[in-house]
TrEMBL record:
Its cofactor is Zn(2+). One of its GO terms (molecular function) is zinc ion binding. InterPro entries: Cys-tRNA-ligase (IPR015803), Cys-tRNA-synt_Ia_DALR (IPR015273), Cys-tRNA/MSH_ligase (IPR024909), CysS_C (IPR056411), Rossmann-like_a/b/a_fold (IPR014729), tRNA-synt_1_cat_dom (IPR032678), tRNAsynth_Ia_anticodon-bd (IPR009080). Belongs to the class-I aminoacyl-tRNA synthetase family. It comes from candidate division LCP-89 bacterium B3_LCP. A motif ('KMSKS' region) lies at residues 270-274. This is Cysteine--tRNA ligase. The keyword Transport does not apply.
Amino acid sequence: MEELRFYNTFTRRKEPFKPIIADEVRMYTCGPTVHDFAHLGNYRAYIFEDILRRTLKFFGYSVIQVMNLTDVDDKTIRKSRERGVTLQEYTREYTESFFEDLDALRIERAEFYPEATKHIPEMVELIEKLIANGHTYETDGSIYFRISSFPAYGRLANVKLDDLRSGVRVDSDEYEKEDVRDFALWKSWTPDDGDVFWDTSIGKGRPGWHIECSAMSTKYLGEHFDIHSGGVDNIFPHHENEIAQSLCGYGGDFVNVWMHNAHLMVNSEKMSKSLNNFFKLKEVTSTGISPRAVRYFLLSAHYRQPLNLVYDPDNNITDSFDAASGALDRIDEFRTKLAELQKQGEDSGEAGDDILDIIDKARSSFKGALGNDLDISGALGALFGMIKDVNRLLDEAQVTAVDAVALDDLLMDWDRVLGVIRPEERGEIDVERIEALIEERKQARQAKDFARSDEIRDLLASEGIIIQDTPGGVRWRKK
Ligand code: AMP
Ligand code: ZN
């Protein structure tokens, strides 16, 4: 297997990557808090992780990825109560929207999306271990992790315990903690929580945020796994706290490689809910910008470099997505030429030497770039360099149908990582075929052939087509 190198936040170095178990990579990627729609900044993180996952597979590894869904915290509780619905009803809408966005952005599904509310026993078990190992204290029913009990605290973020003490802002409502640096493992129930609580051996309440990632990563990946990632804002305190919990609770090793993406910025500030400078994916795509262009834009800068969004729809400024669409047009035009050549000529035999030469060089520079800490600029450079070289030969009519097949194979191979080369599928709904299937289903139902009618409904559902039987007839829509 060729070499992969990743920058490890923990050691602050680029290191050769070696999985713990040969050929299999286990990775944990911090996921969304489903209290609202995710914004493009969040999707920068999830696209970086998608490129990481696809690159690992491209290099021949199998991947087991876990992404948690935080479906209980202060915000989800407060907002569900404001809306007068259960916590579950409240979070469902945002969870569904999250998965729709992942599909639109062609983000491959992780193997597991554990929800915090379904893993309370695992969290309680870990907190019990921490209590037994002497790392906690209790105030008014809440349980805190005592940071001074873990001397290695601060190593990931490269901060010293003493600096933290002086540097951290003291929240006025956190007097119950012995030390401002300590964090809650378990929050005891208060009337503000309404019916959101769990009655457990450590009391009536709910988990703090950090504990879910330690407990759920261990459940699905084991105590020691290969990669843990998130945005740079997760380094401190979230990932630092995870390290403290996992090492003090389970002992042994935790994570081999910590990887963090830089932020998506808007006018030099991090895109975030609190700054109110965010855009949701559907908000952008409803103006006609394709999700494929959004994906291209978000993956086009190296993950450790900040990426600036130039987009102000009120003033018709769409520069970031225009640049992405321009790049995609170049790819599409190139593939159209290849397709025309394939239609015209014989497509058996060997590709020409010139083309094979171009393909070999491009293939190795693409893979070499990705292997070098996901150097996307290098990989895209190989792609567009190849297009430029072949376009020159196309102008001289030096490319055959066989060459075109080989070139398209190369593009499809690269698309396993990039996920932007195939054209948009969403707009390409074959209405006639769908309506014919719906008519066939209607007739099957009339003939009481429910097996066939269900089969058709499932087939359409698998393609994202939802059908509804209404008094006025069958309605359908694309999810
Ligand atoms: P949150 O829902 O805020 O916990 O964020 C979910 C993921 O998105 C985390 O990995 C964050 O680090 C990441 N994230 C949040 N805002 C941005 C941003 N502006 N740019 C890149 N990543 C972000
Ligand atoms: Zn996490």
